[in-house]
Amino acid sequence: MNTTLRKTVLGIAGLAFAGGLAAGPLNAATTTEPTPTTTAAAVQADTPTTKPDSTKLTPNGVQGAQSRINLNSEQTDNAKAIIAATKKTGMDERAAVVAIATSLQESKLENLGHLGDRNDHDSQGLFQQRPSSGWGTVEQITDPEYSTTAFLKGLKQVDGWKDMPLTKAAQTVQVSAYPDHYAQWEQQAADLVAQNWNS
What we know:
Elements: H1 3-23, H2 36-46, H3 54-57, H4 73-89, H5 93-107, H6 138-141, H7 144-156, H8 166-174, H9 186-196
Helix pairs in contact: 4-5, 4-7, 5-8, 5-9
């Protein structure tokens, strides 16, 4: 499925889901409709408003000098897709921070295809995973949900990853030539998770 079609399908599904939440079931015994104030209050009560605690996001604090980039809508959508996939696997906010920081380092949260001469072997997608290394097919590793789930599966296998510095946990999964570079994205990744975990 191409990216545009995928976004359209996801957008329609999201609208349908949101519409279902807003409408809610009607009580057959009630003949009067709730006032707009009551409806707004009910919807607001169902929406989590608290951000994840910073001790969950960066339990050891951030390590070293931090980098930050401005994100376009596609990059922001990719960060949200990583968060959604993390939740779907049952992993916590810290896992999402590690995943987003890794993607920021590997691709700047861009779902990259093959870059020709600029490619690192056959690395592609948000996490620059390689089909030849067993990460999946090109179609799979350029799917944000699949690639995130594959990364998190690797992270789960790292003993004590939650207590490690982010860069060590990420490097154990990624085996990068630049193992210390993940650390610089920890704060931006934590900020993205804080902003979007409950949205």
